[in-house]
Amino acid sequence: MKRKRFILLVIVGIFAAASLALAKEEPYVEDPGTDWGSPDDPTAMSENVRAFALAGRLGTYGDIDAFTFTITQPESDVPVNVMVPMCGDHFATLYPTVAIVGPGLDSANVDQLPFAVADGMGALILSSEQNAVQRPHSSWDLFGVRPYLPDQYTVDLAEAGTYTLALWDPNGNVGAYMIEMVAHPEAMDESRPDREREAASRMIESHEWYGADCNTSIASAECPATASGETGDVSTLQMQPAMGEGDAVMGVVRDSATCLPIAGAQVSYWTGEADAQAGYVLTNGQGAFRIVTSPAEIKPDVRVQVNAEGYNPVALDPSDETTLALNLVPLGE
């Protein structure tokens, strides 16, 4: 059974690589010194473009990139390919979710989005299936980028109009991604200067937009053990969402011996006495976490405690810090 699945993946990869070689789409890349648009202020693509490849990155926990594109007639069986570049272990835990928001789509899906949409709009949500064992590699090559096995979808856009395409990681992982969408073959922007198109292609091929050095370890250079205050019982706290609006405290939990991130650590928190809030979140695959409190709360009022299997817990009293580096000492050390 495993052998059959391996052969199937190889065959799929070969045909996928061939289809990419034949595809013709406009390349767009997020320059390292800039940031693409958000759902409130999406990056607008030319109305002439219905075949494009987007190369971008999610830079911070909770980042959502968004773009708009326009179709002049209904389009069916539109291929959408979502890819994460292979870059050492830096992006191995990044599994982007993509949403297409626009007219004629299912309005029931809107409530599942981490952002608000205009009245009358519906959404298609394309969610990646995570592989906790080993992420499959692929033979795809798009503008010189070698990704993990892509997520491939086909969508129907039943009405002409302007659509928003948004991408985020539900667990807050950061890293580079690519989206290829061909609503109409070779529907490119004839008004776009060739030098601009060529510059985008070169930037994608350079991998500078990754925002990471693929030859380095994901371990941090330094990770001194975090001094702990008094710890307490956290067994009665309830898990809270890490995505959403409001004041936030963010950070990364690491092993103080190896400097590697700790996934699945419980980060408990308590806010100030007035209108107190309490709960916990879990660190993602990159060891990162985000605590969202009410906008009425003051960030320095948040007290945190980190518990992880195999490590001594750490508790921090409120401080002026809103970005925390928490390094846990393994038990017995």
Provide a short characterization of the protein structure:
This protein is mainly beta. Helices cover 10% and strands 31% of the residues.
Percentage beta strand: 25-35%
Low-confidence stretches: 1-23
Kindly state the number of beta strands. 17
Characterize the main sheet: 5 strands, mixed
Whole-number tally of structural domains: 2
Tell me the name of the CATH class of the largest domain: Mainly Beta
- What's the average pLDDT? 86
CATH homology group of the largest domain: Mitogen Ypm
Main sheet: strand order: 1-3-10-5-8
Euclidean distance between termini CA atoms? 44 Å
CATH topology (level 3) name of the largest domain: Jelly Rolls
Helix tally equals 2
List the helices and strands in order. HEEEEEEEEEEHEEEEEEE
Label the overall shape: globular
Describe, in plain words, how this protein is organized in 3D:
The chain has about 325 residues and is mainly beta. It has two domains: about 1-210, Mitogen Ypm (Jelly Rolls), CATH 2.60.120; about 245-330, Carboxypeptidase-like, regulatory domain (Immunoglobulin-like). Helix content is about 10%, strand content about 30%. The longest helix has 21 residues, at about 1-20. The radius of gyration is 22 Å and the shape is globular. Residues about 1-25 have low confidence and may be disordered.
